[in-house]
Amino acid sequence: MPHHVSIIIPAYNERERIGQTLERILECVERRKWNAEVLVVDDGSTDGTLEIVDGFMERDSRVNLLRNPSNRGKGYSVRNGLLQALGDVVMFTDADLSAPIEEAELLFDAIRDGADVAIGSRWLDRQRQTTHQPLYRRFFGRCFNAVTRVVMGLPYADTQCGFKAFRRPAAQIIFRLQRIERWGFDPEILFIARRLHFRVKEVPVTWGHDERSKISYLRDGAKMLEDMARIRSNSVRGRYEAAIAAMKDISRIVTARSSGERPAVSAHVVGTTGAVSN
Known about the structure:
The structure is a single chain. The protein is α/β, with parallel strands linked by helices. The chain folds into two domains: 5-236, Spore Coat Polysaccharide Biosynthesis Protein SpsA, Chain A (Alpha-Beta Complex), CATH 3.90.550; 239-269, no CATH class. Helix content is 45%, strand content 16%. The protein is built from nine helices and nine strands. It has helices at residues 18-32, 49-59, 74-84, 104-112, 135-152, 168-177, 185-195, 219-236, 239-259; strands spanning 5-11, 36-42, 63-67, 89-93, 117-121, 129-131, 163-167, 200-204, 207-208. The chain has a seven-stranded mixed beta sheet, sandwiched between helices. Helix 2 links the parallel strand 2 (36-42) and strand 3. Residues 257-274 have low confidence and may be disordered.
């Protein structure tokens, strides 16, 4: 078990379930004796989600809230939360808790055993699914994963499971390079992790399908495919590599300044923030 854990919950109009979700997470934190912070990232909710989270914050100091300036997407929310999280291990989970929060221990175990990134998988062990998705959702999900593996070279059975954990130093690097802000961000962060040679461990988790899922496989699936094309384009054009090199140069500059040396600055550092351009 890591010394300190940050649990990130991206939320958009989650009034119907955010209260139960926070109750269940806090009960788990107490029962497992985790030293944890719970960070809800609100993505422009208009349905009373904020008021419910505010109520939890008033009575439990472990609950905190971040608010996006507008509705920016799940990927933006996850990045916002993970980059501001304070835990030694940082993780995100969907607001519906389709993967039981108790199974975060499986992710923590993988990280304790040497992984930099631990990702939950619905497909490694189908027997762990407590409520199966409708056939059409399974079909589209499997097709998307197959396309992801072929187009992006990702060897994972399930890239889209909203149950992932990271060593904080790895998360700080990966999510500073992330550019996809909506549903297609999961393959991008795994693509970046592999490019950086981080150790990624896929872990089978229990999964129960929530009929209130907000994903439309026709509408959002098309957007995910578009996002994959953007990721591939960024890769072919060398944008990830340039951003990684810029981050390394900035790190050398900071180190040199700390030691009183005058650092040499590469030409591509000028004007960059370390992020990949679109």
